[in-house]
Specification:
mainly alpha
């Protein structure tokens, strides 16, 4: 009986998180209401407070889940390649994995992109701290792939790369190109360079 009760609690909590992520994705932090989340989870609003004591605590958990899920997905796609693959191949796999995950329709990662800028300062700082594992993984991929004679700053490159990839959900519309095609084009642009090495421009 205790096991069934625990499963029921976890099921209710997960329904709340899924509903919250879906609403945050479309409305952002400020416009999201606990009553809307409760309705989406199929429960009464007061029931949410048995699982999460406040809206802020619930939203923060959604943010953390979105970051952790995305990071695990990227790492899995890169590490499955094995140690014998080149740094540039690993970087390409990371870029493709990140875009495909963002464009998969996942509510949690989309909620992070939509709501992060509206979070209270203290919550934003905690979410940024959790974001460090994601950021550090990209740092390692870029440092490993960077040519020895490169004069490009990998920190600047990382910030541009993540900003470029994270913007995809804001403008992507299903149609002419698939998420995989867009992901490969992004990898080509970043790794090969927009103008290419032999360009005489500039």
């Amino acid at each position: 009986m205790a096991i069934l009760f625990h499963m029921s609690i976890e099921s209710g909590k997960q329904r709340i998180l899924i509903s919250a992520a879906r609403i945050l994705r479309h409305k952002g932090f400020v416009a999201t209401k606990m009553s809307d989340i409760a309705e989406g989870a199929g429960m009464l609003a007061p029931s949410i407070y048995h699982h999460f004591k406040s809206k802020n605590i619930l939203v923060e958990q959604v943010m953390l889940d979105g970051i952790y899920n995305n990071t695990r997905h990227i790492m899995a796609k890169v590490e499955v390649l094995g140690a014998d693959r080149s740094p540039s191949e690993r970087l390409r796999a990371g870029i493709i994995a990140h875009i495909e995950y963002l464009l998969s329709g996942d509510d949690f990662s989309s909620a992070v992109n939509r709501a992060f800028g509206e979070l209270p300062d203290d919550m934003r700082q905690r979410v940024l701290a959790a974001y460090s594992s994601f950021d550090n993984y990209w740092r390692d991929l870029l440092v490993a792939a960077s040519p020895e004679n490169s004069n490009l700053d990998t920190t600047v490159a990382r910030k541009f790369l993540i900003a470029m990839l994270d913007s995809c959900p804001a403008w992507y519309r299903a149609g002419r190109l698939t998420p995989n095609q867009i992901a490969n084009q992004a990898a080509d642009l970043f790794i090969g360079g927009f103008l290419g090495r032999n360009s005489d421009a500039g």
